[in-house]
Amino acid sequence: MIIGGGVLQGLGVTFKTFLETYPWGRGLLRLLRIPAANGLVTVEYPDVKQQHHERFRVFPFLVYDGTPENLRCVSCKICEVECPPQCIHIVGPAKDEQGRPLKAYGRTYPVKFDIDMSICMSCRICVDVCPFDAIEMDNEYELSAQERFSKLIFNQKRLLKSNEYFQQIKPTEAAEVDARLAAKAAKAAPKPAEPPPA
Amino acid sequence: MTTAMTTEPQLLEVSLGPQHPSTHGVFRMNAVLDGETIVKLKPVMGYLHRNHEQIGEHITYIASFPFTDRLDYFSAMSNNLGLAIAIEKLGGIQASERGEYLRVIMAELTRLVNHTAVTGFLLNDMGAFGTPLLYAFREREKILDLFEAASGSRMMCNYVRPGGVREDVPEQWLDRCRALVGAYPRFLDEFEKLLTANEIVRQRTQGVGILKKELAVNASVTGPLLRASGVNYDIRKVDGYSIYPRFEFKVPLGTVGDVYDRYYVRILEMRESLKILQQALKEIPGGPAISPKGMAMGKAPRTFRPPKGEAYGRIEAPKGELGFFLVSDGSPQPYRYHVRAPSFVNLTILEDMCLGRKVADTIIILGSIDIVLGEVDR
């Protein structure tokens, strides 16, 4: 092999890749019967956005059915305990003056539910451990803000999103969750019909 | 006051890093130079120390997984696999058949990602700015896309669990993976055409940073660095963890142990990884992706209380032997959690390889060791 042959060979690869990035270049390569891939792999980000996969996860959100008051969270605090970086802060369940837990839509609810998104590392463990499917992963990602405490600590109001939104962003997972919740409801429903033990 | 002029040769102390683009993060080398030649070199570590082991002792076994993603952030899936194997040994959990196959597929894809990227970075260190690195990253991105489809995140996957994988891969995923594995050799051929025969690359790397077999073994160096020195030691072969004994693959070895050999061993390893991937994708069975015990553990991490004892799980991570040592005292948290990080151990022989070389060689020797500071400092 001639000295410098390796360099020339390498330059050939570079030149081919250069041609692949233009439509006319790809046409030229096809004309020369050289297999050409589409060399355009990047998108012009703020104008064009990449299509993300369904499982793409960023930060968690709370799911409600129908109205925001009918949230699935019962304030059991399992996610708060299991969260690896300890970014979830829950106060609750809500209680009346006598210390009895208040109920809305047949279940207890949190007084305060905050997630510090500047600490959250999007690991999805809160979703895995939640027995009520109350918390799910969002795919909203343009969340940079100037201030940490006022913008990046998401309160309950900011976290609550409807089940329809969940069905829209993650159809497969939402269908599974809905089926699981329906099965649970069907199992629980016959109970009140039974006569209470005397 | 005047400085005394002297004709005596003087040594110059230079601090390379911690904020230097060629040190792959926050790594510092205190070098003593005689002209351009390295006389003494002391690696300084710890700028990225994050208390990984201490945190692991205060949280449940499952909660350590997202932190292992951040050890070697180029190969999150392998890190997960290492911890999963250690926990399986500790708790006596058997992984499901499909889960084992998926884990092997993920681990080998990770090896492709890591070796492709590190080759690009090595060329970047040599002064080939952009081209090889961007070609490497273009291919890496395709694999990261697959990771995103399976786990939801490109780099911080948090996907492998004791007993299998967190959730089964989505539909069409295996077909997409087959297509990628089918197309990858073409990229490798092109990459090799660009680099392997290139005279500049050869002049720059051949005979540089030679690591002798004996020193490599004595310093407990592992991974491609050890194999480039000609020692046939691959944990996939010698330990046979997971289902690796079922696959046919060779362990590529180097002869000289210089930077070029390390580069070439990595290229050959990628070709062997593709062989494993092809076999795994052909044989992958149906069934659940995670065993019932692993599933229960994922749903309620605090119910997992392994019996008193200790376990050491190790895997052949892209950078070498990645080991997780766990001691259980019967509580939901490990009593002791230790990580044997390959790039930390491999870094200890940096001085021996650099002595007598020029400063520019030091940079590519460091690049050829393949370090990720997230793992070195933990």
What would your notes on this structure say?
The complex is a heterodimer of chains A (198) and B (378). Chain A is α+β, with helices and mostly antiparallel strands. Chain A is 36% helix and 11% strand. Chain A contains 9 helices and 6 strands, in the order H-H-E-H-E-E-H-E-H-E-H-E-H-H-H. In chain A, the strands form 2 sheets. A 3-stranded mixed β-sheet of chain A has the order 4-1-6. Chain A has a 3-stranded antiparallel β-sheet with strand order 2-3-5. In chain A, helix 1 (5-20) packs across helix 2 (23-31) and helix 7 crosses helix 8 (171-188). Chain B is built from 16 helices and 8 strands. In chain B, the strands form 3 sheets. In chain B, strands 1-2-3 form a 3-stranded antiparallel β-sheet. A 3-stranded antiparallel β-sheet of chain B has the order 6-7-8. In chain B, strands 4-5 form a two-stranded antiparallel ribbon. In chain B, helix 6 packs antiparallel against helix 11. The mean pLDDT of chain B is 87.
